[in-house]
Amino acid sequence: MDQSLVTGGMMLLSSTMQGLAAGLISAVFMRGNTEKAELEKIKAGKFKEVIDTLVAEGKISYTELYKYNNFFKVAKLADKTLLNQQPNNDHSQMDFDWFMRFFDSVGNITNEELHQLWGKVLAGEITQPKTCSLRTLDLIRNLTPDEARAFEKLCKFVLTSGITNFVYDMGFLDEKEGHAECHEFMVSEGLSYSNSVIPLVEAGLLTLDHDLAFYFAKDDKLQFENKKMLCVIESCSDETVLFQQTAPQLTTCGSELFKIISESPDFSFDTEYLHLCVEDLRRANPLFTFNEYSRTD
Question: What is the value of pTM for the model shown?
Answer without folding.
Answer: 0.85
